[in-house]
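Figure S4 source data
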Amino acid sequence: MTKLTKYSFSNNFLFYILLFIAPFIYYIKYTVYGFFNAEVVLLLVSLIVVAFIITQFEKLFGWVGHILIATAAIVICLSFLPYFKTNTTVLLVFFIALVLNVFLENHIRTILSIMLVVFIFSTLVFPIKHQMSSYTEHHFPVKQPRNNDLPPVIHLMLDEHAGIDGIPTNIAQGKELQTELESVYNKNGFHIYGAAYSHYVQTFNSVSNLINFSNKPESHYYFKHNSRLTQNTYFKLMAQKGYRIRVYQFNRLIDYCEPDQYPIESCFDYPAANLNSIKGLGFSTKDKFLFILKSYLLWSHVYAMFQTSYQYYLAPTLSYFGVDIPSWGWYQARTSAILIPVIFQQIAHDVKQHPYGTFFYAHILGPHNPYVYDANCQLIKNPRSWEINISADPVMNTAETRIERYTLYENQVRCVTKQVQMLLADLKQAGIYKKTIIIVNGDHGSRITENLPVEKLKKQFSLQSYRDCFNAFFAVKMPGIAASTSFETKSIQQLLAKVVNKITGSKISIKATNPYVYMLTPGYHGKMMPLYYDQLLKSKPNT
């Protein structure tokens, strides 16, 4: 074990080629992107070049160098595959790979090369689980007859849409945006609740508690081992009233479609992550190459570990000693917001086809990041500039990045508002607008914040951070509610309960309490601790 087995450049080069391209081939097959696109071919060639460089680099070292380089390469490449995405599995793979390299030397490379050839062949030939690559609609038989005496109800759950109070007026064009939102919604007959808030900063907690008119202190309370809801009081009450239900949802976070429990006649699923979304958008091969590279790197748990360590530990430590290093920018490759116009078009079509006796519930990932549209819904043509609300979690914004991201966010809010206006115009043209009840709400704030609501950092959490994280848009158009704007501090649960009581004649009761929000716990699981609004008013400046 102290002498290096006879070195063969060709064998080692082949080993590294197979090691690097195997997980990439799996990735392309999973994303259904296609192997014969120029950007994919370029990435494969790039991986072969990397394999060549590492094989040459390895020649500079002796036995110990070979062992460590091979071990590191094996761990990194396996970290791209499913089931290798935890710290525990990475450490386990490192230990096993190190032992095998030490005791089997270059023989392990031959064994692994054979295994990699089999893996690549099976990946190419046999079907594997695919990423959802396009939107689909599922239709279900419904026994409940359609009640054409019931007015249509449309609920637009606009993910990450901040309320009027949640839009800062001292940066970007916040004041103008507040005025625009009030003008658009008030003129169309909506009452806006400008100080509405969510108890939760995370979608799965906020939405699941909203539709059950509850405020559970336990994270993931309404889910069991998957994204399916265990309870949906909202749908139950609407069904009891006589409504058929049409659902529009994204496929990863919350699954509302339970046709066995509720009279759901269709479920429109669209992908929250879809690499194919960047096709046909006029991007250059270079831009697609870089976007796919970024998306692929984010699959690696090792990459994520190094990125988080760099952002969360190294950068702040060096900054403390007066040394500033650049932010590690490749932290997102989401595509969900691209489909915002598609979803609105589908809703407008369906409402005109099935206007009466139908409840349309749409959870739309817009204005949710990434920010891909300008104020006129024109796609930002450089996908490398698509930002999200915070950098690599858990590193927060600086004052500068917060301004930059709010500018992009506000434009996407304007785009979404234009889509809402187009939907309203379609309903007016079809002659069904006056009778239609419409609810528009966000599930939490923009989350473009310098401080997340983390329990251990509660003392740093300011009133402005509260507004960034928790203030949520809520507007409703229905008989008996005047078209105006009010600023009572009410939870979105209280407001939706009021609306649903009017629609269904139910008596949902939510006890009025001192307004509060939940702080995040380690791992974002378990019981959450409340932070009361009056504590922020008394002790925190409005920054």
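Figure S5 source data
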Amino acid sequence: MAIATNLGFPRIGEKRELKTLLERFWKGQIDESALRDQSEELQRRHWQWQIEAGIEHLPVGDFSLYDHVLDWVVRVGGIPTRYAGLDGLAQYFAMARGTQGEDSISAMEMTKWFDTNYHYIVPEWTEDQEFTPNFAEFLEEVKRAQEIGSQPRPVILGPVSLLRLGKARGGDFDPLTLLDRLLPVYESLLKELQAIGVAWIQLDEPCLVLDLDEPAQAAIRTSTERLAAATSGLKIVLGTYFGDLRENLPLAMSLPVAAVHLDLVRAPGQLTEALPLVQVGQLLSLGLVDGRNVWRTDLSAALGLAEQAVDALGADRLLIGPSCSLLHSPVDLTAETSIDPEIYPWLAFARQKLEEIERLTQAINQGRASVADCLQENAEILARRKASTRTTNREVRERLSHVTTEMTVRQLPYAQRTVEQRDKLSLPLFPTTTIGSFPQTAEVRRQRALFRQGKLGETEYQAFLERETEACIRLQEDIGLDVLVHGEFERNDMVEFFGERLEGFLVSENGWVQSYGSRCVKPPIIFGDVTRPTPMTVPFTRLAQSLTEKPVKGMLTGPVTILCWSFVRDDQPRSETCRQIALAIRDEVLELEAAGIGLIQIDEPAIREGLPLRKVDHADYLAWAVESFRLSACGVADATQIHTHMCYSEFHDILSAIADLDADVISIETSRSQMELLDAFVDFNYPNEIGPGVYDIHSPRVPTTEEMVTLLEKAAQVIPTERLWVNPDCGLKTRDWPEVEASLRRMVEAAGNLRGVVVSV
């Protein structure tokens, strides 16, 4: 009999319960005992849902109070020395968020988990790194799962992926050289799991979907062989996901594991290649349900793949599951009450995906006839979606067919148009600005909620937003910022806001997913062709500019980021959808310019994360991603300054593409990495202006003026001072006003100090 499995479940809870618990704990409203008790209750609820849905192999260890990669850093004792004076949750959260006070400690770096929208904490490895086992809490978690009568399958981040996901600190060495020191810690864990009666484990090595050199491939073989030999009583499922294994497929299939999991949503073709490589007695885990999107599975097509595997191996050698962990999916579609009734049946969130897994498993074990009604209903829903007039807009497609190369090119090159821009803006050296958003206080959120509930009239709500906008402008003037923003108080999220105003999108009520820690986002769902019926940002930007003599930036989210941070339709190429969004943003850019806005920021923090995981696929993606940005930006006059923002990305391998965006100013995240990212600009000679983030907004810590001066001095060694801007590393939405004001005043002071130094020289 085939076995229904899961690779992981969302942590945050249907109503973001984990977010609430964490933020209450950080504010001192609950103690550690309450945090742990209530988070364990949330975890048990998630387990029960999976058991009730028929999941036989229950993932355990996928839950986390902040981040699963950080969890494994702690579990193997790889904690950086600067946190040695702390312990327990104080140490754990210091690593994630930093600490405040006289002896403040900076947080660890954060970046995107492969090509998803989830952020992980980047491990820091040193050449003399030592590892020590710290698995007590992990083992207790497994025991709790055993107590509710499940067959837990502990989820273990593999040693090679853990090392590769980290960065070498204090020396130039390959973190994989630490593998021999790390493996005994993993071996000890497997022995302890066997001792408490665990039968199966899930050993995730997602790095197998990346380009691996021979030493990395050898490390995978060495580590897996050693772990398999550590105990003969455990059955290992090797977890791979997010794409095609390609040249790594023979390696994965040859390893001494009980089963190999394949992502057959992103790479269905690899099943045909994998089947002849399955070892005698080995099982194959089929990822048939999309763990990263919200569309209902084509059950008949998924069954076709499963039946291909049944013909080759037999049903009893199959595990049926999602393509990857359901971490990236909202929790429960039934919590939605206002989604368009035509579109609602097209969707499936995490709990509905579990049901799909169960139906597929039943069909394999009992035949298609056992789920005939379900298959018929599924086919009818998919047919209605395909035939729906809601998905196609002829005017959009006609307009896109007439896009020309000239529409994606500025009239003058940067070196010439910057002269016009500087003359128009009259900014000082090291001009100061922010990335866009200012704190969304409890009162802002309350007023928005009242308005959406119909308890606050539109006139009253607009008046409130206008007061907030004016107060934000006055504060920025008082702080001394050179380029202001309106604060974005009318916006709930930088992508959802636009999803609510663009046709072809829908927005859910409770479709939350975790971005990092307690930060959750609610990606809009792109179901049809995209168009902009009315201006989206012009009124509040125009208002802000009317309140001050200083320049105000218009703030937009770019087409690639709107694409990547949405749940995207799966019935046409992503490039086509992105170009449609670009035309809509282009219209908004031109209206902002017509309203007298001389600086327009089109944020593209997701352009790097959208990069395919394999280098051979980069060129095609970058071509349409760059074209989409330029299509959105290049309709303006040369005197209008175009900004963009990118954060938490490794840009080294796409610098030429970033230059091809031809934005006049790019602001980037560099604070957590101590300006490390700017090393990439040394050899590249980036031609335009740069604002390297001088402080980390993802931590409540207020940096000193001296720290920011030091970072700017590092930047000035790489970038000419006349092309340097001064800004935080990201938007300020999630922070509190006191820390924001203190940090920005110090930032302005740092810029002023450097102006004095430059002038004196």
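The chain has a mean pLDDT of 94. Residues 702 and 739 are 6 Å apart (CA to CA).
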